[in-house]
Amino acid sequence: MQYLFSEAGRAAMSAVMDLRPLLAFDFDGTLTPVADHPDLAVMAPPLIDRLESLSQTLPTAVITGRGVADVRQHLRFTPRFVVGSHGAEEHGLPGSRLDADAVEAFDALRRVLNKHDDALRHTQVFVEDKIHSLALHYRQVIDEAAALQVIHEVLAELPGALKSYGGKHVVNVVALSAPHKGDALCSLVDRCGAKAAVFVGDDLNDEAAFAIAPPHWLTVRVGADMVDSKARFFVEDQAEVLRLLDALLGLVAPPQAGG
Q1: Which one of 20, 44, 234, 254 is most buried, counting C-beta atoms within 10 A?
Q2: What pTM was estimated for this model as a whole?
Q3: CATH architecture assigned to 2-93+179-251
Q4: What is the structure's pLDDT at 259?
Q5: 100-175 in CATH: which number?
């Protein structure tokens, strides 16, 4: 990865903005700092102002691991698209993107979680059930080793139609058959007729979008801690996302008449 505010990064921003791209963002750790509890995530007013301005000119999207209903409560701007559960659900589209095997598997996993309920509560693991996906958070635990041991015991009984992967003090569970963030991003680009995309994210589940992006798209990771990230560029931390938005706003061209 290269630093976004380098000569190469600024050239890449200028080139992609000439294509009037879809602007897509992860939520936690990208549009907000990572909070101790999902309910505590708050978008900063300056960030909201920039996103509102950008969304008046270009299609914008939030693609998050949160459920759609949950993230919409925290958004303070109106993106054209809101995709949740790592790509498995979208605001405005009816029905589930989970096949019957995945629905049955999640029900089985919920029974496993109920069996381990005492241990999960004792170790302070917070279980976030998003219907289309599930997350086991251990950011606030006192004994991380004990919490991870309980999570390991739960996942040892993970049904075959599901898979798990780690993140920042969280273990996510999704359906094997469900689309990922990269699938969601490509679908949105096609549907809105954009010639390119900008995608900004900070965690392991954003790598699918980074990896799938063609060379003329702009992918930006928040933080340089993952040395093998597939993102082309990085910003130092979540605070620099505001600087990124300012740079994009400075490159926004008004739509051409009749275009």
Answers
A1: 234
A2: 0.85
A3: 3-Layer(aba) Sandwich (3.40)
A4: 45
A5: 3.30.70.1020
